[in-house]
Every structure is written in C-alpha cells, then in structure tokens.
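Hmm, what's this shape?
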Amino acid sequence: MNEYIDILIKSEVFKNISKDEIINILDDFKTEKKSFKKSNIIIDAGDIVENIYIILKGKVEISKEYDDTRKNIVNILNQGDIFAEAFAFSTNKVSSIQALALENTEIIKINIENIFKANDNNIKNMFLHNLLRVISDKNKFLAFKNDILSQKSLRSKIIIYIKYMANIQKSKNIIIPFNRDKLAEFISADRSALSRELNRLSKENIIKLDGNRISIINIKN
C-alpha cells in the first residue's frame, strides 16, 4: 500500500494528515486493496454496501439506470476520489447506483465497522472530519445535478452545466471531462440533439467550441 501514499495524501479524505499517519490509519482500518479490469462492475444496483472505496488508480463511472432503460451518469471519478460512502453509512445499505471501472482500476475498501472499532485519536477524528466535508460537497453536487435534470429545455441544461464547470474551473475557457456520448448521458439528453444545440449556441456566439473545450462568449449570470 505504501506505493500509493503519494496519491492518497492528495485525496480530500486525507487532508492535513501526514504520510506516516495515513499508513497508520490504513492499518488501523484494516483496509483491503482490490483490482478491477476495464468494464468490470465494482458495485451494482441492489448490492449491499458496507465499505467506502478510494480510487488508487484508474477511473470509475457512477451511473443510475431507470426502468425505461435510460442511463444517467452521476459522475466520473478519478484517483483519490471516494465513492459509496452514502450507502455504507446509511441504515439502508442497498445501492441504487452502479460503479463501473472505465479502465483498469485499483481501489482500497474500508469497512465502516473497522472505522468505528479503530482507536479514537486525532488522526481518526481528522479523517472523519474530512469525510463529512466530502459528503457535504457531494450533496451540493447532487443538488446541481437535480437542477440540470429538472430543466425542461436542453439549452437550459447545457447552460447550467457550462456555468457550473466555469465556476469549478474558475475560468471562462473550460474543459469538458466527457466525450459527447457521456455528456449526453450526464445531462440526460439525446446525443444528436446535444450536438445540434451546442452548434446552435456556437453559431449564436454564445459559446465557442473546440473539441472538448468550450469558451464562454455571452452567457448571462
């Protein structure tokens, strides 16, 4: 596990925790490392979730499928990101999402019972403090997703997404972390309709398109 400490120290859940302290806390929590090949399912809808997961290497797609076979991407996670904590800490631990390895991926699992059983100390308290902040940030992100999904027009969905990314990246020249197919799934739109609307926004000089880069020209706050 020591070879991943430089990755873990950059993770939000280990903020203000030293490398030596991370090694100690991982030992106290009895963490387990797992490997998944590309397209392997890490968690499926309906699974009972008793662990939180931290990505050491690779990418993980979090998605939700609906009864009419529609798929909505909740998020795509990278090194240092965590997932499944909401289910692990809930009284109802049944997953409503799927976590899929988008490439060969390595993760560590932390069983929440091991967190509770670990000795109380400042390091454990800092970890829990960081974890609560991560959960809070995710709740705000889900509120943003709900805002997108509640929009009636595709243009409104796109503009809300662009404004959000500009705020996160602190720039009017933003990089979209998805290809068009994944972006369409993320905002729950048809891929062809998404491309047409992006092109209209470009022709109207509202945005400028350049591959996965979008420059904001005239979007009102």
